[in-house]
Fold this sequence. Notes:
Layout (H helix, E strand, L loop, with lengths): L1 H9 L1 H35 L5 H17 L1 H9 L6 H13 L10 H13 L9 H16 L4 H11 L4 H4 L2 H8 L2 H8 L12
Helix pairs in contact: 2-3, 3-4, 3-5, 6-7, 6-8, 8-10, 10-11
Amino acid sequence: MGALVRYFRQHRWQRRAVTFLVAVVAGAAAAMLVWPRVGEYLVLRNLGSASPGARDRAIRQAVVMAQRSEAFVGRLDDALDTEDDVKFASLVAVLRRLGKFNTPDRDGAQLDRIGAIEIAQTPSTQPDDTAARTRRILLVRIILAGRDNSYVRQVLELACRDASPSIRALAPLLAARLGEDAALDALVDDPAQPSHLPRP
C-alpha cells in the first residue's frame, strides 16, 4: 500500500487519471440507481399534462413501469391524493388497465370522484345519444352505491342541469337520498319528470 502511495506521489498525472475514472464509475453507478426514480417522477408529472397526447403516452409508460415494479403501483395509488382532476383521471386509467382500481378495498370517495369526472367529461350532441346513455349508467351506479360525499353532491348538480331528459329524470332519486329538498323542488316542474312525480 505504501509503495502505491509513493507511486502516485511521484506520478501525479496517473493519480489524476485514476481519480477521474473513479469519479466516472461512481457517477455512472449513482445515475443507474437514481434514473428509475427520475423516470417515475417524469411519468407521474406527465399524467397531469395539459396535452392529451402527452397524457396518453404517460399512461402507456406508467402501465409498462407498473408491470415491472409493484412499488410503482403503490406510488400510483398514493398519487391519487391529488387535487388535479386531470391527473386523477389519468391515474385511474392506469390503475384500471392494471386491474388495480375497482377493488373491494377501494375508497368509495375515489370511485365517486372518477364517476363525477366522467359524467362531466362525457358531453352529448343529442339528448339521448351514446354519451347520454353512458352518463345514465354512471349516475345509476352512484345512486345504487348509496354514499354521500362532495363528489356525489357534485353529480347531483350535474344531473339536475343535464341536457338529457333521461338523466334529469333520475336526478330526483339521488336528491331524495341525499335529502336535498331544494333540488327536489326545482326538479318538480322539469318537463323531464314523470307526470306522477308528487309535489312536496
